[in-house]
Specification:
Layout lengths: L28 E4 L2 E4 L20 E2 L25 E2 L8 E10 L3 E2 L4 E6 L5 E7 L2 E5 L10 E2 H4 L20 E5 L4 E9 L6 E8 L8 E7 L3 E11 L2 E13 L6 E13 L12 E4 L11 E5 L11 E6 L6 E11 L2 E14 L6 E5 L2 E6 L6 E8 L4 E10 L7 E9 L8 E8 L6 E9 L5 E9 L2 E10 L11 E4 L16 E4 L7 E8 L12 E9 L8
Parallel strand pairs: 3-6, 4-28, 19-25
Antiparallel strand pairs: 1-18, 2-14, 5-35, 7-8, 8-9, 9-10, 11-12, 12-13, 13-14, 15-16, 16-17, 17-18, 19-20, 20-21, 21-22, 23-24, 25-26, 26-27, 27-28, 29-30, 30-31, 31-32, 33-34, 34-35
Length: 551
């Protein structure tokens, strides 16, 4: 695309770097942004809706996966078994649901990859930013939209130079939004890549203030001919952390066939954006790739700013070490000066990937099944420092027994109670309290008191895909409480199996108590009476009365 890429492929190393190649130097690979721009205040912009129009086919984004892993439809092989951590009954609900409202709707892309973050504006008001493929919107807690929102490329990243890959017409999906509680800024990102994947970029916007409706500094970070698929961000005490599954993708210009080579996951970090005058560039310091056993790693993401974490950030993945679709360990890493260091494996109850990592979720009204994305941990890896204890929580979807393909939510809480590694498993369970409902695409977080909040999708052969939440009260519950339905889905999705690829729970930093959750549902048929692939999103809140507000 004519950009000045400062990262070049060389023999023996993935990239040419300032000092030494990855794995040989102590400071890792350096990737410097190649373009910078500044947006006007988002509150001043005119509407920029997605370019999709009725009658156009949707853009079906490829499923992120590790080649050779997952993709199955679940099964009953491997003998007779039941998930050892299965919770088949529920406890009384102590949490209460609050505001629930509609988020963004269909943008022309499938799936929406719905996520949100929650922050505090300069006037002390809570703001909620939701991003989907390929647009954003900003709300208050009542559901009123604070800006016109619209397409990410045409709004945020159009202020980059026209030569930048992240400019207006390069919406590549996989968006993320985070509120940086330490600096009072918003981060919004998405991918950009050209038609033959010879140039792949990470597009990053950082707000100039705590006001999500204000101006943003936007950057184009080039990854050359390696696609940073499924990127995730995490806020940490010493910087912002990043992870992605790296692929080299070749497109045959004559046949259109695509060949992808998985390179392993890559972890990166960059300095905290606590600038007065925005820099013209930012620099990622990254680990090397080449180890394909490292995949789908999540960076820990800070909740609560009263005690910032020390040291460098942690990364976590589950390990399919019993078969290609089952395992009993979590692998813990730490990114130190550009080197991804293995800290050890944490033993957990034996798990089996939901749907074998592939598609098996039934729906009312159609034979079309939905994708579970059961081959990875789900966004986010939520971290809190409670002073005497540090804790992280995370979840993924699993098959609950060998007698059916039914899926449930496996959750973990990790605490710093081990003398040999920084964290050990201090709580876990698989939430599937009935014999018919499939639960998947979850997200989990912890409030300032230590209560857990979990949101997820539900579906079965007798119900449309819907949105539900549950939680666990600290010091009271030994498992998840009776679930609450935030939104009953009004329709099924057919033609396409893609669902997700993630949802998110965030905690309102204004009180450190209120959980906000967002995910998708399928809307009623609304074009020509034949299409059932349109989605909507919902945003809802819940909290525990025992939580003491601690902003």
């Amino acid at each position: 695309m004519g950009v000045n890429v400062k990262v070049l492929a060389v023999v023996g190393c993935l990239f040419l770097v300032t000092d030494l190649c990855a794995g040989q130097g102590r400071s890792g690979i350096r990737i410097e942004s190649v373009a910078h721009g500044t947006t006007p205040p988002l509150s001043s912009l005119a509407p920029m809706p997605p370019g999709w129009e009725p009658g156009m086919p949707p853009i079906v984004l490829p499923k992120p996966k590790r080649p050779g892993k997952g993709g199955g439809g679940g099964g009953t092989g491997g003998g007779s078994w039941t998930d050892p951590d299965l919770q088949t009954s529920t406890l009384s609900a102590h949490y209460a649901t609050g505001s629930v409202f509609q988020g963004q709707g269909f943008t022309g892309a499938i799936p929406p990859d719905t996520n949100l973050s929650v922050g505090i504006d300069p006037n002390g008001n809570t703001q909620i930013v939701q991003v989907v493929n390929t647009s954003f919107a900003i709300y208050n807690t009542s559901g009123s939209q604070l800006t016109v929102g619209g397409d990410l490329g045409l709004t945020l990243f159009s202020n980059l130079p026209s030569t930048a890959n992240c400019n207006a017409n390069m919406d590549g999906g996989d968006p993320i939004v985070l509120w940086d509680q330490l600096d009072g800024r918003w981060l919004i990102s998405q991918l950009a890549y050209n038609s033959d994947f010879s140039q792949n970029d990470f597009c990053l916007a950082i707000s100039d203030s705590a006001d999500a409706t204000g101006s943003y500094e936007v950057y184009d970070i080039p990854f050359g001919n390696s696609l940073p698929d499924y990127p995730k961000l995490g806020i940490w005490g010493d910087g912002i952390y990043f992870s992605a599954n790296m692929f080299n993708i070749k497109v045959n210009q004559f046949t259109g066939s695509v060949r992808s080579t998985f390179l392993g996951a890559q972890a990166c970090s960059f300095s905290r954006p606590s600038w007065i005058t925005a820099p013209a560039s930012i620099t990622f310091t990254c680990s090397g790739t080449g180890n394909t056993a490292i995949y789908n790693i999540l960076p820990a993401d800070l909740d609560g700013a009263n005690i910032a974490p020390s040291g460098s950030d942690y990364y976590l993945q589950f390990v399919n070490n019993l078969s290609s679709t089952s395992g009993n360990e979590l692998a813990l890493y730490q990114l130190q000066s550009g080197q991804l260091t293995a800290l050890g494996n944490l033993s957990v109850g034996t798990f089996h990937d939901a749907c074998g990592g592939g598609t098996c979720i039934p729906q009312l009204g159609t034979t079309q099944q939905l994708d579970s994305l059961g081959d990875r941990l789900m966004y986010r890896l939520s971290y809190r420092n409670y002073g005497a204890t540090q804790a992280m929580v995370v979840n993924h979807a699993v098959q609950v027994s060998s007698t059916s393909t039914q899926t449930g939510i496996r959750w973990y809480q990790l605490c710093n109670q081990s003398a040999t590694i920084p964290f050990s498993v201090c709580g876990q369970g698989t939430f599937s309290p009935d014999s018919t409902t499939y639960r998947w695409m979850g997200s989990i977080a912890q409030d300032g008191t230590g209560n857990l909040g979990l949101g997820y999708s539900t579906s079965s052969g007798s119900m449309y895909p819907s949105v539900a939440v549950t939680g666990m009260e600290k010091g009271v519950d030994s498992g998840m409480e009776t679930e609450a339905v935030l939104y009953n889905g009004p329709n099924f999705q057919d033609t396409y199996s893609r669902w997700g690829d993630y949802s998110s729970v965030a905690v309102d930093p204004k009180d450190n108590c209120t959980f906000w959750y967002t995910t998708e549902y399928s809307t009623p048929t609304n074009v020509f009476g034949i299409y059932n692939f349109f989605w909507g999103t919902v945003i809802g809140s819940f909290n525990f009365p025992n939580c003491t507000p601690n902003p």
